[in-house]
Amino acid sequence: MRENNITWHPSHISREDRCRLNRHNSCVLWLTGLSGSGKSTLAYAIDKELFGLGCRSYVLDGDNVRHGLNRNLGFSPEDRKENIRRIAETAKLFVDAGLVAVTAFISPYRADRDMARSIFREEDFIEIYVKCALSECERRDPKGLYKKAKAGEILEFTGISAPYEPPVRPELVIESDRQTVNESVGQILHYLLHRRHLFQPVSE
């Protein structure tokens, strides 16, 4: 009933107009990888670099979003799916507003990432696999989560008691156990420049 009584209201300002105002194109950088792989560190590093270059960007971090928008969700496969759906829809609003949205979520299931990709234009969704050996993620364990998961204190923990399905054809692979943060940021910026996501005028 509710779906039959809601209407999409288009903006009077187009995405292209917003991008022209911002002097760069918009997209989503979808960082995926195991807990401890360095997603959040990399997300905030690229956000800082983009800000320094005069680009409007914003990080949607997994923990931060679960403090508010998704605080009612757990970590079952069903809740993980809904978590990713909400984030994808939120990121799409950011992209429509002419911003670079940077998301940092484990997003362990390919089907959920494919669902997220499907709501964007093909060129707008940039999947970045933050690849890191499980042993290295466990060694880092910045939040002590792997230790708790192995002790049975955390259920449905990706890499221990729940699966992680690596991307098959991501736009970028960042090997965070082999690359420095600066090298990783440089790789992402090079991609954005090469593919004309940034610093390119939008066609009239």
Number of DSSP helical runs: 8
Please estimate the helix content: 40-55%
CATH class: Alpha Beta
Measured between the Cα atoms of the first and last residue, the distance is 41 Å
What strand line-up does the widest sheet have? 2-3-1-4-5
Largest sheet, if any?
A: 5 strands, parallel
Name the helix and strand elements from N-terminus to C-terminus, one letter apiece.
HEHEHHEHEHHEH
Mean pLDDT: 90
Taken together, the total number of domains comes to 1
CATH superfamily descriptor: P-loop containing nucleotide triphosphate hydrolases
Helix/strand class: alpha/beta
Number of strands: 5
CATH fold annotation: Rossmann fold
Unreliable runs: 200-204
Cα gyration radius (Å): 18 Å
Question: What is the multimeric organization of the chains shown?
Answer: single chain
- Classify the beta-strand content into a percent band: 5-15%
Q: Would you write up a description of this structure?
A:
Helix content is 41%, strand content 13%. It has one domain: Rossmann fold. With 204 residues, the protein is α/β, with parallel strands linked by helices. Strands 2-3-1-4-5 form a five-stranded parallel beta sheet, with helices on both faces. The chain has eight helices and five strands.
